[in-house]
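Running this now, will post back.
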Amino acid sequence: MMTGYIFLLCLSLLLSVTLAEDPWQVEFTVNLGKGDVDTFVMTVHPDWAPLGAARFKTLVEEDFFNHVRFFRVISGFMAQFGIHGNPQISSHWKTQTLQVNIKSSSSSHYYMSLVNV
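Update: finished.
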């Protein structure tokens, strides 16, 4: 009987490791005005917040962030972006809420949060 429990535990651990997605990166190109362009790279860790990472990946794959503006930047603290300029696209995503599923992270420099307000 104990062998069966050990097998199930090993199978469970194997599945969780197999199903866990590795961190991935996305590069954003930002128009700073007057012809100035720069880039930044975000590294996404799906094991920190699986649902949030999956949603962000979907948005990136659907080109949601193309032509999206930064609407609030506080130097040394944060930058907010993500409201789509097309009202139809924005209203669609406004209704797509997520459950909180933070596994591990920290609200410190260079971290991203998905927020629906």
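Residues 21-117 form one domain. More later if anyone needs it.
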